[in-house]
Amino acid sequence: MRDATVAVIYNPVRIDVPRVRAAVEAAAERAGGVDLIWFETTPDEGGQAQAREALSRGATLVLAAGGDGTVRAVAEAL
C-alpha cells in the first residue's frame, strides 16, 4: 500500500477495543506505509465530528467500528 492515513472511529462501549486495535495495527503493519489516527466516540459526539476531524487531518481511509449508530453517524459525515 502507498503511504496512507487511516482514521479509525470507534465506539468503546460497542467493541472490544484492545482486540480491534490489535487487529487494525497488525493490518497496518502488514500493509506498510500506513499512519493510524484513532478517534473515540462519546455520548455527545457519536461519530460525525470525529469523521470531519479525520478528513481535516488528511485521512485517506476512514474505518468505523461500533454499532449501527456509529457507522451511520460516520457515513453521514463522509
Question: What does this entry show, briefly?
Answer:
The chain is 44% helix and 24% strand. With 78 residues, the protein is of the alpha/beta class.
Textual characterization of the structure:
The protein has 78 residues and is of the alpha/beta class. It has one domain: Probable inorganic polyphosphate/atp-NAD kinase, domain 1 (Rossmann fold, 3-Layer(aba) Sandwich). Helix content is 44%, strand content 24%. The protein is built from 3 helices and 3 strands, in the order βαβαβα. The chain has helices at residues 17-31, 48-56, 68-77, and strands at 4-10, 34-40, 61-65. The chain has a 3-stranded parallel beta sheet, with helices on both faces. Helix 2 (48-56) packs across helix 3 (68-77). The longest helix has 15 residues, at 17-31.
Q: Kindly name the structural category.
A: alpha/beta
The helix content is 40-55%
Indicate the mean pLDDT: 96
**Can you name the CATH architecture?**
3-Layer(aba) Sandwich
Please give the radius of gyration in angstroms: 12 Å
The shape, in one word, is: globular
CATH class: Alpha Beta
In DSSP terms, counting alpha (H) and pi (I) runs of 4 or more, how many helices?
Answer: 3
What are the key terms here?
single chain, 78 residues, alpha/beta, Rossmann fold, three-stranded parallel sheet, 3 strands, kinase activity, ATP-NAD_kinase_N, NAD/diacylglycerol_kinase_sf
